[in-house]
Each structure stands twice: as structure tokens, then as C-alpha cells.
Amino acid sequence: MDIVGIGRPCIDILTVVDKLPKPDSGAGILDFSRQGGGNVATAMVAAARLGAKVGMIGVTGTCIHGKAIREDFAYNNVDISQIVTVDGAPNDFAIILSDLETKGRSILYKGGGLRQIDAGDLNKDYITSANILHLEGGPGDVEITAALWMKEAGKKVAYDVANYSERIKYFTPLIDIFIASEFYYKAAFGADENYEKNCKLVSETGPEIVVFTLGKKGCVGYSKSEGFFVEEAFKVNVFDTLGAGDVYHGAFLAGLTKGFSVRETAKFANAVSAIKICYIGGRAGIPSFEVAEKFIRTGEIDDTELRQRVDYYRNKWIYSV
After folding, report:
1. Helix, strand or coil for residue 41?
2. Structure confidence at residue 89 as a pLDDT band (50, 70, 90)
3. What is the mean predicted confidence (pLDDT) over 16-39?
4. Based on CB atoms within 10 Å of each CB, which residue in 15, 202, 286, 290 is the most buried?
5. 214: number of CA atoms within 13 Å, CB side?
């Protein structure tokens, strides 16, 4: 196994509009879809699409959303042998409005009440069979237990640091691959744009690799083996930015498993997430490795399979439950 992720999968119900309607008015839907969601969950789908051998650990219900989550993992070749399926409360879901006017998205989230993954659900042999464990800020005892197992086995721990919290300061000594959003950066460092200094500050707390994704600016990072780097974003026609960060994480980890240098990996992840934002949702636009590689070389997106994936997700919502 290349990568194992632990996280809370959900379902995204997606619409794209020209601009968000004002109160007591409406807007025509340009596109719609239903796709699997969740930070680590989508990262694992991205890594699997790019050729990594991937497994996902989480909890799903017997509800319609739980069934859709499991089917989506299977469709994307993610191993779900360690997914826990329980009766009772349904899985979480989100209704997402992406608008072309601002290139942003508005998210309405509904927690289903399904229980969290707990340490008793974990299989040590399965987790440590992977080279990388990917985490997202779930239950502390679960993540610490799994991270310690990986450290004992001489394996790597990656972490999706989406938002700033004091808790992460205590966890960073266990993290090897620290990838954080621009929202985290601004919360931690404010308007200070000395990226090299601040990447090094984080690295000094433990991580071998530190990366901050900066949206349309691309990404910056630092590794103890290669030093500081800046990678600009690829220019594309943006359709939907949802899941771009999650896809970046999955692509970054997949790049590492292929033996890319850290800087090459960052460029590769930028390319994969750039392709993704040309299509609706977090998963329909995830390219294969071959499509991503061609895009890096030529700037062209071979979208034959991607359009088929968009149709699959749209039709899956309409014609099946």
C-alpha cells in the first residue's frame, strides 16, 4: 500500500450558477452533480486516480449517502476494506453553490450524527503497510495512535492543515509532510509574506516538508533536503474551485510515491489541482497521471475521460439512488 488515509467522508450535492441570487430571487443552474467529499477522502481519490495504491479508513452509514460514499471510493479504485459501516445516523452531506462571478463557493453543511472513527476501529498492520499515512484533524486519540504506529515503523505521516488551531502545534512533531492552506498561513503569520522564514519556522518543529497552498498564487514550500521553493499556479479557465486543496494533497502524496523531488511534486500537484478546477465538484475533474503529465508538458488538457467522469457523476445522481 502506498498511502492510507483516515478521515470523515461525506457527500457533496453541487450546483454551479453565474452568480448567487439575492433574497427572494432565483438563479439558473449551469451544472449540477453529486460526488463524494471530505478532505482526506478526496485526497485519497486523487492519489488513486494518479496511480497510487490507496486505502481509506472512516465510518459510513447504511443510509443513501453512506452507500454513495462507498460506491464512489470503489469507482475510483480506493480500497475500502477498512471502512466501518454502521446502522443508525446517516452520513454528513453538504449543499454547495459555486458561482462564476466570484469563482468562490458557498457551503451549507449538515452533520448526519454518525459516530466518529475511534481507536478500536484501527488495524495496525493495515495502516503500517502503507508508506504514508494522511490525516485531517479528526479525533485526537485516533490520529496520535496511528501516527505513532507509523513513526515506530519508520513510515511517513502527512497532515492536511486546512485551518489554524492551537492543537496542531502539539501534533507537528509527529508530522513529516505538513501541507497547509492560505487560511492557515494568514491566521498563523498574518500579513507577513516572508514565506521562506515562516516555512522554516514550521519545519523546525518537526516536519521534513512544509508547503503552503496559496490559491491562484500557486504554492510555496521548504524541505530539509532541498530548501525553499516557489511554484506558480497554472493558468486555466476556472469553473469550480471546490476540493482544489484536497486534490492538491492527494497529488502531492502521489508524486512523492513516484519518486519525484519535492519541488517537482509541488509543480505536479499544482497541475493536477489546476485541471480539477476546470470541472464541477471535487472529484469529477481529477485527471489521470497521463493527462496531468501532458498538461505540464504542453499546457493542453486532454479532457475526453474527464468529460465522461462529469457525465458519470451527473447521471449517477439522476438515475440511481
Report:
1. helix
2. confident
3. 93
4. 286
5. 17
Task: Please give the residue that has the higher pLDDT: either 150 or 169.
Answer: 150
d(CA 321, CA 66): 11
Please tell me what DSSP assigns to residue 79. Answer: B
Q: 161 with 180: CB under 8 angstroms?
A: yes
Task: Give this prediction's pTM.
Answer: 0.95
Asked if residues 35 and 163 have their Cβ atoms less than 8 Å apart, the reply is: no
CB of 236 closer than 8 Å to CB of 215: no
Render pLDDT for 61-79 as a digit per residue (tens, 0 to 9): 999 999 999 999 999 999 9
- 2 has a pLDDT exceeding 60: yes
286 in Cβ contact with 272 (< 8 Å): yes
pLDDT at 319: 66
Task: Assess contact for 70 and 83: CB atoms under 8 A.
Answer: yes
Dihedral sign, Cα of residue 191, residue 274, residue 229, residue 5:
positive
Three-state DSSP at 242 gives: coil
Looking at every residue in the chain, the average pLDDT score rounds to 94
Instruction: Please give the Cα distance from 106 to 58 (Å, whole number).
Output: 25
What is the distance between the alpha carbons of residues 173 and 169, in angstroms, rounded to a whole number?
8
Strand order through the sheet with 209-213: 54-57, 3-6, 132-135, 156-161, 177-180, 209-213, 219-223, 227-231
40 backbone φψ class: left, alpha, beta (φ>0; ψ -120 to 50): alpha
Please name the residue ranges forming H helices in 79-205: 124-128, 140-152, 167-171, 182-189, 195-203
